[in-house]
Amino acid sequence: MSWLARGWFSVAVFGLLLLALPGLYLFGLHVAGMETQANEWLEANLRMSFHMALPLAAAGVLLSLPFLLVLLYFLKLKRKALQVSSTFLWKKSIEDLHVNSLFQWLRKNVLLLLQLLAVLGLIYSILAPKFFARGGQGRRYVILVDNSASMGATDVAPNRLEQAKDAAIAEIDAAGDADAGMVIAFNSAAEIRQSFTSNKQVLKQAVRDIQATFRATRIEEALSLADSLANPTRSTEDVAVRPDASPRAYVQPETPDITPVHLFSDGRFPDAPDFATGSLRVQFHAIGQPGPEVDNVGIVGFSATRDDFDPSRMFVNVRVQNYRPKDSAVKVGLTVYVENRLHKEYEKSASIDGRVSEPAKSQAAPEGEEKPVPGRDLPGEVNLSFEVPEVDDRLEIVLRARLEGNKDVFPADDAAFLVVGVVRKASVLVVGPPNPVLNAFFDDPATRVVCEVAKLTKDELGDKVKYLEPAQQGKFDLVIFDRCAPEREDQLPQANTVFVGRPPPPWQAVGQKQPEGKTVERVDQPAIKGWTNQHGLLRYLTGLHEVGLYEAYRIGGLPPRTPKLMEGDRDLLLMFTLSRGPYTDAVLAFPIVNDIGEWNTNWPLLPSFPLFWRNVLYTLGNIRDASAEENVQPGQVKTLKPGPGINKLQVTPPNNAQATQLDRGTRADFAFGGTDQMGVYSSSWDGGSRRFAVNLLDSDEGNLQPRPGIRIGAEVVTAGVPDKRPRELWKWLILAALVVVLVEWYVYNQRVFV
Amino acid sequence: MTTEAKSNLLTPDFLHRLEQLELVSRKIFSGRMKGERLSKRKGQSVEFADYRPYTVGDDLRFLDWNLLARLDKLFLRIFHEEEDLHVYLLIDNSLSMDFGTPSKLHFAKQVAAALGFVGLNNLDRVVVEAFNDKLSQNMPAIRGRRSLWRLLGFLDQLGPAGPSDLSKAMRSFSLRCSGKGVAILLSDFLDKNGFEEALRYLVARQLDIYVIHVLAPEEINPEVAGDVKLVDIEDSDEAEITVSRPLLDRYKKNLDAFRGGLYEYCTRRGITCIFAPSDTPFEGLVLNYLRRKGLVQ
After folding, report:
1. How far away is chain B from the Cα of A746, in angstroms, using its nearest Cα?
2. ipTM exceeding cut-off 0.95 for this assembly
């Protein structure tokens, strides 16, 4: 063992120097700008990465510090004066030592070892090595946090949203220091809470700031947002090239990076089968207590209709779903308020079957692998009907349904509100030659319930009493011009209009001289190629491609960004809307009946035809009907139509907080977006007021069982194992270096161990 | 040096024990006055030494009449002459002696006081000389126990001062010193010019020389660490050192070599060299160690 005693120091110095080489090599790579390549190799082979935790200048200074200290150590710049009886022997010793000082110093200087250890600790600490973390730079990732109503469920403590936020913060921690992250909170809409940044603190704070909402969940918008921002499309054209603001050609980047999207949600949203993930790689992090044990019963439907024969009698229907795996007894209470005063209370009990859930199955994929398919589940459901007599149909009624004595983890769906307003009929004017098809719709008793219809001939358009004055005074809600139109724009009514088979002024009829830049051409036998069902006019319409047309008109010179509702072949626009101040002019570029009374289309034979005209009435006719009014979910925009001549309106939320002032501006109606709370909102304007209810009423939100997988595009994304939280090593190395320096100081001053 | 230390150079109990000792000189020197020491000269003491035949002119009082009666021959009785002894106590009081805990000077003064008391008790002529780079202070020769207070008084007021120059001081001493006797040199010998020349002056005076080499424990095992600037207490000479094991080892080797060199030099010249760290128990040193070394008996 004597050789060990003699040689340990040399071996230790040599070993420490060898240990320093990789660190110095990595530092050199970083200085040379090759950190990315080095990290790729490290990740592939050692599952670790490094990143210079400090700016280069600071790292250089830190690296030079130990050497500076060593230099000072040798330069002996500052020494403590100590009186001795004689320097005689000391000087002699120094002289002796100087003869072979380097050898002596190297032979047994533990200080050297400690210094080397400290230098090593510092080098490796500023290289910030990490295990289980991704290094590199410029990599992007997106954090999607679901803050919809179902995330407020308390099946996990304190609730799902907090769990999602914790998981998201852990994911941010797992990212490399150079990775840029983006935080998007989504519910029925998506909102960027933090754009791409590599500052983890900012990202974490953005996650922490996400608040719970009562909104429903839609994933498409969030994914679209993430996709567009992760790899934005690029265009080589700009305004100078396309001054008329015509659509520019956007292209995807040639080599888009695969951007990981971390989706923190319970998966309770409709799948997005039409979304192309493209360059996004969605990683689904399922939040919530897994398994079929869901403790929730909720109201998912709440509607009221008045008796057709006795308007003072009302039928209220409450639909309750049971998401528990076992049968549940519920007691539904209904409270009727008339003009803010309690009118009556009702209560009904029922037993609801338990939820039937089919477990997920595995389906053989073409590649021979098995793909999991999320199972279906059918909650138990019961419809409870209440008959509410003696309710004045001239008064506004507020209904409140609630589950009495129900305790579950999701109280948001235990109550619902409904406002049954006074029916307001639309005032409709139909102008044009006789049209039996339109007459059949507008003369129908069901139509007459919601609207008053007046009819004029084409010649009466110039009549001051019959048309011009009432039109200018806004007496009509909707004017339908069938194969005719006012001659000039100033003769257009102060109302929404529908032009059938004739363009609105300034366009003239086909064959007549058109103003400059405007054209109208006849097109024979066009085919319907596409339509949008997003617009209110075409909502719920299907099978429009079966509609055959004999002739139509190609109307040229439309303003840019004209909403295209229905398109035909040969780049033909068959239906569109034009904005005219607060009013909308809808244009059908084909007649229903031609000038000689023959049908131009087979559309009236299809079910979509009366639905279309119903949509026209309800969308453009300013009808208010309790039975037809759609439920407004939290976060949805509520459209308010107080009637013509009203330009200002204020909305008070359910908690009577600050009222919101709305200005109509150039819009046809008031749009109120602040519907974040559930309950009854009150809108008031000069001369009137109206209330409306906001309810969740969403089966997807109420069914709290986290889905194990979601379908996005053609891909089923299953909840994955979260990434391991990285263990930062460099701070420990810094600490080790400090300890080493302290030990060094102690040993140095104790001398006993020198 | 504290007042308490000054007044406690010698304790009464220790003095009592010292009374039984006397200084030993390997050389028998003649003294000027009669003391309790047998001189080489035959004299009139009561201690019989020898007989010798009578020669004309001898003092008839010393004739041994009994022998004349028995042998009918004249023999003279010879008695040892009792003489006093010159005891020179040479104390280095340079600044370097004021170092260590306890300080070397205090230790040297204690030893000097003890040996001086032994000398006085034996009616030796005790001379104390303090020196640094010269003979700085001296105490006239004293004799007898009653002079102890003068010895202690001198030693008490003796303080550190000045740089040391051993050879110059010993040269002055050798010129001044007239009588022969025992010279006890108490010093740390930390003289950058060396100690050899100084000892040669003493040797040349035919003195019976005892060297007591006093060093402080801090000099034997230095308690220094780190980067320090050593300042010489005498000439403010500076030495910047970084304390390390090799340096300390080298220092100790040099110290051992220095002590060894002094010891060898002294031994070769019949000088008794006694090494006494200043933290050595003083009484034990005088009562045991110096007795074994032959300085006292």
Report:
1. 11
2. no
